[in-house]
């Protein structure tokens, strides 16, 4: 496991702990326009360069998607999302590869949880790296 990956996991764990105590304030100061999950993208800004952080969203493509406490399939299931659900994405990171896709999204819908990017198509600009 790389040091960068371990740091991301530690940071995510801290975010999850903080989210349990207070409502998180999102910081999107290092948005990565070259990043993405390889899934389809639709940019509602019309390509005008105005990237609103509130547009970091995705649509679940799996019938039922387990959202987890860490970016791997062995971690605790926090909740489930279903096909067609629109989810809010805080950031993305590498994790366990799921059907050829190593990216995972940290979702901020009520409880913070990780979802495999393989089953979430992004809407709008690609989320930043964690």
Could you provide a short overview of the structure?
The chain is α+β, with helices and mostly antiparallel strands.
SS elements, strand count:
7
What class, by secondary structure content?
alpha+beta
- What would the average pLDDT be, to the nearest integer? 73
Question: H/E element string?
Answer: HEEEEEEE
- Oligomeric grouping of the chains: single chain
CATH topology: SH3 type barrels
CATH architecture verdict: Roll
Poorly predicted ranges (pLDDT <50, ≥5 residues)?
15-52
What count of domains describes the coordinates?
1
Biggest β-sheet strands, sense, barrel: 5 strands, antiparallel
The order of strands across the largest sheet is 6-5-4-1-7
- Indicate the proportion of strand residues: 25-35%
State the main characteristics.
alpha+beta; 5-stranded antiparallel β-sheet; about 15% helix; 7 strands; SH3 type barrels; about 130 residues; two-stranded antiparallel sheet
Describe the structure.
By secondary structure, the protein is α+β, with helices and mostly antiparallel strands. The protein has one domain (3-123): SH3 type barrels (Roll), CATH 2.30.30.40. Helix content is 15%, strand content 33%. The chain has one helix and seven strands. The chain has one helix at residues 3-21, and strands at 57-60, 64-68, 77-82, 86-98, 101-107, 113-116, 120-123. The chain has a five-stranded antiparallel beta sheet, covered by helices on one side. A two-stranded antiparallel sheet has the order 2-3. A hairpin with an 8-residue loop joins β2 (64-68) and β3 (77-82). The chain is globular. The protein starts with a helix and ends in a 7-residue tail after the last strand. Mean pLDDT is 73; it is low at 15-52.
